[in-house]
Amino acid sequence: MEKQEVFELLKKDQFVRHNGIELTEIGEGEALGEMTITPDHLNGLGTVQGGALFTLADYVCAAAANSRGKSAVSLDGHIDFIKSVSKGTLTAHAKEISLGRTIATYNVTVTNEDNQLIAVFHAKFFRKD
Amino acid sequence: MEKQEVFELLKKDQFVRHNGIELTEIGEGEALGEMTITPDHLNGLGTVQGGALFTLADYVCAAAANSRGKSAVSLDGHIDFIKSVSKGTLTAHAKEISLGRTIATYNVTVTNEDNQLIAVFHAKFFRKD
Amino acid sequence: MEKQEVFELLKKDQFVRHNGIELTEIGEGEALGEMTITPDHLNGLGTVQGGALFTLADYVCAAAANSRGKSAVSLDGHIDFIKSVSKGTLTAHAKEISLGRTIATYNVTVTNEDNQLIAVFHAKFFRKD
Amino acid sequence: MEKQEVFELLKKDQFVRHNGIELTEIGEGEALGEMTITPDHLNGLGTVQGGALFTLADYVCAAAANSRGKSAVSLDGHIDFIKSVSKGTLTAHAKEISLGRTIATYNVTVTNEDNQLIAVFHAKFFRKD
Fold it and tell me: Complex ipTM above 0.85?
């Protein structure tokens, strides 16, 4: 896929749109996205739900994985929750760790406006021919 | 926490409510939940977004982890995406694997109405005194 | 591969032989193995080293993954250390969770002689044509 | 623990000594180690066994985690196998990602002499008071 097609495909994602997550940049094997926290992102304790953090990280990761000219589908995702957060805008930054013929791996950091680490995410993608 | 308090706390989760996820049962170290797929759960390919599957699994897991009389917060979550799915109702079933003084671990399966495996999830919780 | 070939291939593993790990059974998508703890398995605290537990689990998992008529290579491995252990014989039991055309997933439990859970392991294999 | 004590404790690890793994450097939240491949590290396919790679990564990670003045025990470990390798010396480099009061997280890369990525590892440690 061309970068423009990747953008088009990712924009059609209704789950992230429904949850206020936006892609802000796609590079080569790299991507950035944002989520401004609203009450709809909070769990019963009043902090951002783990699923919201995962979705932000995973989405940005999918953008990075699909920036390489092949369609890539997610095999897995692993997230560590580092620090709870209740307000502000979160930024996810995905970076490629390895790019094989069929498997690629990515790390993502999720940070808040003070550049504090909120979560770290790691995922593998399967690259289709 | 008493089981009733756990239910109350989990019901306050606005992210899962916003995404149509419901808890259906809490046992001892076990829980069940459901998500009926709507267009809001779909990614650009028209299948349920990984973040939606993660949220369903993680939420049910939190219920199981908090069923043991201590407040428990999620340390991590790992999901493998087994099979893509586009419609119907998904069920998540969380089971306790180990219960230590400070750390507990859980496995979750996410299945569709035909009892096909959609995703498997594993998480660790930190139990507060 | 036929089951006999899998056995032959796995028996050639010099790392597990060097570390006293043995395969005891291979079924369909399932396998069992053992490690009798010696001083060579211990870390500086006198308990079995995490790497020894991982190796036991991963090896048994490889046996289960290669029992399905296709050669399978390990993509990843995730282990949670539940309980430390210093002596006796450990048993690893691998069970298939999913078997796709190219990806298969497995859970492994590592238990001691009192059937206490020492570690849980999860891995994905890539199945070659 | 003082850095010297950490070194002493880690040197007592008989499993890594038995498998030819050495710690070469400990910094603040960082560590380096090495393993020169011998036939004892190989699996049935003649490449370095996953358990050997895990052990190298996990050991270096334990050094980094114990460099912070508190005793730290491993909660888990996740490894992705990127590239198979049969000879030469492997280097593991552990870096701290987060350092909380009770939980710390680390990433480790395992590279060969050509600086090719062989495996990536991620782990969480529990910090004791």
Answer: yes
Please report residues of C whose CB lies closer than 8 A to that of D106.
Answer: none
SS3 content of chain D, % helix, strand, coil (to 5): 30, 45, 30
Q: Which residues of C touch D74 (CB under 8 A)?
A: 50, 81
CB A31 within 8 A of CB A25: yes
pLDDT in tens, chain A (129 residues): 677 887 888 889 999 999 999 999 999 999 999 999 999 999 999 999 999 999 999 999 999 999 988 889 999 999 999 999 999 999 999 999 999 999 999 999 999 999 999 999 999 999 987
Domains and CATH numbers, chain B: 3-127 (3.10.129.10)
Chain A positions in Cβ-Cβ contact with residue B9 (cut-off 8 Å): 44-45
How far apart, in whole angstroms, are the C-alpha atoms of residue B56 and residue B37? 11
> Which of B13, B36, B11 is CA-nearest to residue B91?
B36
Rounded (10°) angle between helices B50-65 and A50-65 = 150
Q: Answer yes or no: are the C-beta atoms of B125 and A50 closer than 8 Å.
A: no
Are C124 and A76 a contacting pair at CB < 8 A?
A: yes
pTM of the model: 0.96
User: Do D122 and D106 meet the contact criterion of CB atoms below 8 Å apart?
Assistant: yes
Tokens of B5: 């308090």
SS3 A17: helix
Q: Which residues are within 8 A (CB) of C82 and not within 5 positions of it... i.e. 6 or more apart?
A: B97, B98, B100, B105, C117, C118, C119, C120
Of D82, D97, D107, the CB nearest to A98: D82
